[in-house]
Write a structure and sequence with these properties.
- This protein is mainly α.
- It has one domain (5-96).
- Helices cover 58% and strands 4% of the residues.
- It contains 4 helices and 2 strands.
- It has a two-stranded antiparallel sheet.
- A hairpin with a 2-residue loop joins strand 1 and strand 2 (112-113).
- It is rod-shaped.
């Protein structure tokens, strides 16, 4: 199997999706609902603007927690998931070097080299 961008994209997508489970979305919705419930409970017109700001702040905090996690836990989990996905992806690749680009040994009998590689040849390539 050669490395290709479509497979890499799928691996990264799977790693990201694994970090946002349905339970997280349920928690986010509950936090946003709680913020609205608190804001709507304010009936004093003089406190309405303050209640709206508090509601907006609570929603922003909930969204930030949902995306980033607390104390960087979410980012660390994403980094680990991506690292594992990329590690697995790269390890499953087959690297093919054509004979013209390999350091060839001289021999008079197959499998019995009479000298070391003729030239050290750099291996170059890219994810296609």
């Amino acid at each position: 199997m050669a490395l290709d961008k479509a497979t890499l994209k799928t691996a990264i997508e799977a790693a990201l999706n694994a970090q946002w489970a349905a339970g997280d979305l349920t928690t986010l919705k509950a936090d946003v609902k709680a913020a609205f419930d608190t804001a709507f409970a304010v009936t004093d017109p003089t406190q309405a603007a303050s209640a709206r700001q508090t509601c907006a702040d609570a929603i922003a905090t909930a969204c930030h927690k949902y995306v980033h996690g607390s104390d960087g836990v979410r980012i660390a989990a994403l980094a680990t998931a991506l690292s594992n996905a990329l590690d697995t992806f790269v390890k499953t690749a087959t690297i093919t070097i054509d004979p013209l680009n390999a350091g060839l040994q001289t021999s008079t009998v197959a499998g019995t080299p009479t000298a070391g590689p003729a030239l050290p040849v750099p291996i170059t390539g890219a994810v296609s």
